[in-house]
Amino acid sequence: MHKNIDLRAKILLSLGIITLLSFVIITYILSMESSEMAKDSAYQSAEESAEENGTYVKANLDFAMDTARTLSYTFQQVRLTHHPDRVVMGRILAKVLQDNPQFTAVWTLWEPNALDGMDADYKNKPGYDGTGRFIPYYSNQNGKIHLEPLVNYGTPGAGDYYLIPKRTNKETVIEPCCYPIMGKNVMITRVVVPIMIEGTFDGVVGIDISSETFQKAITSAGPLERGYISLLSNDGRVVASSNPSKIGAAVEDSSAKEAIKQGKRFSTMNKDSYEIYKPITIGRTTTPWSMSVHVPMGLILEEATKKRREIVVHGIIWTAVISLILFFVESRITNQHLKKEIKERQAFQERILRLASIVESTDEGIIGLSLEGIILDWNRGAERIYGYTKQEIIGKTIKGLIPQDRMQEFGDIIWNVSHGISVTNSETQRIKKDGQLIYVYLTVSPIKNQRGEIIGMSTIVRDITTQKILEKEMTRMEHMNLIGEMAASIGHEVRNPMTTVRGFLQLLEANPTSEHYRNYIPLMISELDRANSIITEFLSISRTKATEFARGNLNDILESIRPLLEVDAIREDKLVVLEKGEVPDLLLNDKEIRQLIINLSRNGLEAMKEGGHLIDPR
User: Fold this and answer.
1) Any idea where the Histidine kinase domain is (predicted)?
2) For 214, which of 46, 240, 270, 300 could close a Cys bridge (C-beta 3.0–4.6 Å)?
């Protein structure tokens, strides 16, 4: 008796060790994969946040630069008429400021007597200083337009907004600085465009944007799930940040600072944090800014640690369950796992159908444009895709919706359309009102008048961002499939020694010398079979492949497996009776239905006494 118990203990111990090692290996692999996936997700989130927020800020700065450039061109034309009117020019500046409340101030500064040669007539008048030069500074104070003359324009440092473009004859973005507006110092950034007439520098036009405006833009662009985002000027100083304590601070990393100055992408990672810097190029300036995202490594690893703990806990639970099953019979566990698998697969199918429904229900936007890219028509589909209403967007340039790296592509489209060549289903990217970057299909066609002249273009826009997301989801499912295949391989290695043990037990059972412990061998074989069944169920859970359905008839399936069930019944002195009814063809998986019916029938045979009847109902 002692030897029998010792042999059984050795067999159970061997199976327990094999099962434990299998779970340890599987748990380790899954935890490592989940950790890497969590890190990749955090890095991708930081990259996308920097890109989206950088695009949002760039759009604001580019719009300010475009506005200043337009004013410069307008004033050049006014000057060339030889009859410039200072009052009219001032009204133009005030009107631009009134129409763009996001600007803090709009101003111009002309060289002495360069405008109309009448500086002496305007000395010390409202909006002028003692020089009489045309230097109006229009600021927006609580919705009211205020006029005062520019100050400090001849002082190096404080007057760089005038002295630098005068020296370089180039568009310039001045680093954030304090400037007195109505007696109060305000932190502003200046966008400046020179006024060049016949190759001669005659003055500048500028637009001031307060640092508070950038801070609101950073906040309204959307919070970062982990860490914080910052807007940095060309000298590496923080202009705005979702972490207000960082405002005004300078970048300490010399490599990052150099990358910002040169307009290059840069990322760095240490034990404490992960940081990424995305350049922001403004107009034709040579002083790019940068958008940075700072994510603490503790937050990045937090999700990975959480998933790893969950996997370890699940592994311990499953190990304990299988160890108990080696001693106690739990016949109902098969049905419980099967119901769980069916429920998970149904949830997966519903999710796929829901995503497909979203893709199918998208509306297309139709936009009418002039050949210069001015928006003339804007339908509801475009409102939904971009977020702008018709009142907000009509009359503005389409370039505000185009990322900087797609400008050349847009120029090619305009060239093709202006030459009568349509562009069909061109995949590209656009910017929504909230700064989000979306993927779209464009179909652009020329619009002709009755004489056949091309006077504009029609653009049909289809948002395919959801489709891109779906493609990423399918890639993730392929990764999960790979993990499932690895788990299946490990399960195969576990089954091989189990099969060997079962074979030796059968040999012992047939050996006459094993009579004194033969009563224990069937129980051990039964427990081995049950352990094999549990491993099969565990591996089935790791599968992520969707069930394939085909039309079939339950009666045909019952008829095909009846001989197998009858053999099982005869062997145990029991009877199987099949009573078929009329049933329609159904969408089903033939293999899984067969296995389900066999499992249910064998459970019924095991539960009945000898001489019992098993009836498959109609």
Assistant:
1) 489-618
2) 240
